[in-house]
Write a structure and sequence with these properties.
This protein has 138 residues and is mainly beta. Helices cover 9% and strands 34% of the residues. The chain has one domain: Immunoglobulin-like.
Amino acid sequence: MPNESPDHYFRLIQGSRQKRRPSGRLWCPAADVYRTPKGWLVKVDLAGITPADIKITIDGPLLRISGSRRDGICGEGVSHYQLEITYSRFEKMIQFPRSIEHASIERDYYDGLLILRLQEEGQARAASLNYQRAFTSN
C-alpha cells in the first residue's frame, strides 16, 4: 500500500494494543506529557472522577492510570434523552523512554485534571504519593 501515510500505520498499531470493554465502548482519557528539568509532568483529563477512584501503577518505563467514572447524579425513575459521557472503567498507559520505577510522584487533582509530577531518583524529594489539593476550593 504505497499511498498510505505513516500515520495510518501508527493508528493501526495503537488500535491493536488497546483493550475494549464487552460493551464495545473504550474510554481512554486524554493526557499531556512534558519533560521538565527535574523529571516529568503528566496531565490527565479525568473530569467527574473522585481521587479515591484513581489507581496509579508503574512498571519499568510504563505509567498506568486506571479507575472508573460513575454517574451518581441520576436515580430511579430517570430516563435518558441524550448520553455522550462515558461512565465506565478507564485506563491510560504512557510509555516513557526509560524506567520511572525509582521516580517519586507528587499527585494533585483539581478542576477535573490529574496532575502527576515525576521526579527522577537524583531529584526526588519524597517517595510517596501526595494529595495536595484533592477537591479543595479556595
